[in-house]
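User: Earlier you gave me the apo prediction for this protein. Now I'd like the version with S-adenosylmethionine bound, so I can compare the two side by side. Same sequence as before, with the ligand SMILES added.
Assistant: Got it. Here's the input I'm using:
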Amino acid sequence: MTTALPIGAGFGEEPLPEQELVRIRDVIYRAAGIFHPDNKLRLLLDRCGRRMKELRIPSLHEYTEYITTRPNRQTELVALLNEITIGETSFFRNQPQLDAFRHVVLPKIVRAKSPLPIRRLRLWSAGCSTGEEPYTLRMLVVEEAAAQLKDWVTEILATDLNERSLAHAQQAVYGSYSTRNLTPAYRDKYFIPSGDKLEVNALARSNVNFSRLNLSDDSRMTFMKSMDAIFCCNVLIYFDLASKRRVIQHFFNNLLPHGYLFLGHSESLYGVNDDFRLVHLPGATAYVKGERGLGGEKST
Ligand SMILES: C[S@@+](CC[C@H](N)C(=O)[O-])C[C@H]1O[C@@H](n2cnc3c(N)ncnc32)[C@H](O)[C@@H]1O
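And here is the structure of the complex with S-adenosylmethionine:
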């Protein structure tokens, strides 16, 4: 079925051009593990509509051909993924989780690694969106630089699929919505005014490295080794079960034996993975890899 629309027209409540949408859904799923169930096809249509408007392509049929057969289809796929994966986030989004990380998990990681000659902490914000999560982690680490992390080198890897989000993260300028949870002390210590916005300062930017990484890219995922903690919050909602399982297995392989995995507030590995062990921390949960080097938390 071919849907011809005036350029820029909305799709409203018209019948869905399912054949084309299912083809585009398959392309997205194979590329990024993101699955649009039938009840999300209208949303997918809306996002394709944005790209069609930009490219001045008048019908979904032509756009489907463009993204499936044209030599530059990979470039278009990246652009469509940028439209699909716009992610909500903010600084200090999940305070109980951050408190548990700082006061319960970090001491365990420090203890587990203290016999090693090199004191290096490696954190990964996987699906970091516009950067608020990794910068928040960096601020917590700086707060501990004179105490738990004295003489430690810290590296925060921040990755996302969405190029536009990563560009925003590197620009590091944020409006009132993103910064609404900041305390005055953090605002003063880690931000500088930038018009009516706030810019993350050099101290909070240091040792935070952003790069584009598709969590469904098995070859790249294999190289994200030696992590002490992985934060993959509010990302797996995009994935179906099979894609989730693959990503979680990579996290398992990439964490050090004492490593921790943090998910979003309402996410769990129930039915997804049996290798990780769920632990209950004060006000939050996390997943641990090993039995050793832990203790203190309640596990299920
Ligand atoms: C809702 S945001 C979460 C941001 C942050 N982790 C938080 O909890 O505040 C979800 C992010 O996951 C990213 N994402 C979705 N699918 C992805 C994939 N296959 N690979 C990498 N990132 C992906 C999106 O681009 C988006 O930025």
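For your comparison, keep in mind: Residues 1-10, 292-296 have pLDDT under 50 and may be disordered.
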